[in-house]
Amino acid sequence: MSAPATTLQDIIAHAKEYGFVFPSSEIYDGLQAVYDYGQNGVELKNNLKNAWWKAMTQLNDNIVGIDAAIFMHPLTWKASGHVDGFNDPMIDNKDSKKRYRADQLLEGKAEVLTNEGKKDEAQALLNKMGQLLGAEDLEGVKNLIIEEGIVCPVSGTSNWTDVRQFNLMFSTQVGSVAEDSNTIYLRPETAQGIFVNFLNVQKSGRMKIPFGIAQIGKAFRNEIVARQFTFRMREFEQMEMQFFVRPGSEMEWYETWKENRLSFHKAIGLPTESLQYHDHEKLAHYANAAVDIEYKFPFGFREIEGIHSRTDFDLRNHQELSKKKQQYFDPEVNPETGKPFGNYIPFVVETSVGADRLFLATFCNAFTKEMVGEGDKQKERTYLKLHPALAPIKAAVLPLVKKDGLAEIAEEITNSLKPYFRAVYDDSGAIGKRYTRQDLIGTPYCIAVDYETKDDNCVTIRHRDSMEQERVPIAELKDRIGKEVAVERILEAI
Fold first, then answer.
1. Which helix (H) or strand (E) holds 363?
2. Binding residue positions for substrate
């Protein structure tokens, strides 16, 4: 007998019950597509961000980090193309009054065709959609939806409005008096904060091409169709790195970062069979190459990271609009001319991973249901099989009973471990229930203090995944567990 397949509802329920993710403002019935990270969720998310940050800035001598402001001069978004072109194709069903993204309706149809074994038809549909969107033929997109027999899931009808573009940026005003205020935007991406600081970082850090700038920060998009838990939200966090390279070398670096980023996802524990590349059918206005790294969620393969060759689009546009040169002087000798490369606007290769999507992928991958025991005693076991370096709590110290000095020994052990990694003390309930409680939040090691501990200064370590137990001297706990839960284990695997 095998455990039932995991659904997204299983993930959502577990995340809430065990302190990982809560609906935002839940006492007021929540706010659609906005979530709060609970006491365990924030630890897991911070551990993921820490692993990414160190993988970028610690493993690479030529990558540094910044933290740019969320508010930026409005012309930033004019130069980037967001004011004129940051749109999603929307379509309404006249009967249900529900609004949908037209491209997602077509992608859903393609997914159905793929599941039916009609991969060629699915690909042809995606290709056709890409061509129509690329040509901004919105009437053609509507006709394609009708031709494919796509109906509203609520009304069951194909009584569609025309497709139109909807800008996704949130706007607000800055200024003390409304009449004198200027419209500014909540940033829809973190990348532009890097681009406008390109020369500041290059000059102050004496950086030489190629080099990268990394950033973790919040971004905001007015998603009309926000769904699938933390996968698509209106307020989200990005982990981006913009890598500045010599024009003509961008495709070599594009392939390098494509492989490097896949290695990172494997290093944090996402299995090879649940990851895949997906080349873009329709390139963004700034790109000459783009690929997504997709993870197999309970709702199918979806993007968790994008690698884009952005050419010199951003720096060139900022140079033209700001009238400030965004150039780099390259003293290296061009082998073709025998002269220095001189001044040029660098090309950019971007790696952009959604912290919230990575959190969800990691959580889904870790959520494990399995049958344990034999015969009539067989039962279902649920636990989070997180990489030890990512687990919210690394070790839980559990006295067998609260009397006879065992609790005091357990508390002393807990306090001795706290400076090195996150350890907690727990004496509530039977020890079997305490093991289960720690399993459900992904704690990799439980340390049991029993009566023998008073005689031999040893404790029993219980391993989360295998449930195996071993006797270990108290003096060895810091080094034994500390080694396994360190972020260095992830960095070593990249």
1. helix 355-366
2. 101, 189, 236-240, 350-354
The rounded distance, in Å, linking the Cα atoms of 460 and 453 is 9
Give the DSSP H/E element, type plus range, for residue 182.
strand 182-185
Binding-site residues for ATP, in ranges, read 221-223, 231-236, 303-304, 354-357
Please give the model's pTM, rounded to 2 decimal places.
Answer: 0.86
Binding residues: 101, 189, 221-223, 231-240, 303-304, 350-357
pLDDT along the chain (494 residues), means of 10: 78 97 93 93 98 98 97 90 78 89 88 88 89 86 93 91 85 68 87 96 96 97 78 94 96 97 98 95 81 94 95 95 95 91 96 97 96 83 97 97 93 97 95 96 97 94 96 96 97 95
Query: Hey, what amino acid is at 234?
Result: R
Q: In angstroms, rounded to a whole number, what is the distance separating the alpha carbons of residues 334 and 332? A: 6
∠ at Cα 346 (135, 219), nearest 5°?
Answer: 65
Q: Which amino acid is at 329?
A: F
Query: Structural domains in the chain?
Result: 8-71+188-363 (3.30.930.10), 386-493 (3.40.50.800)
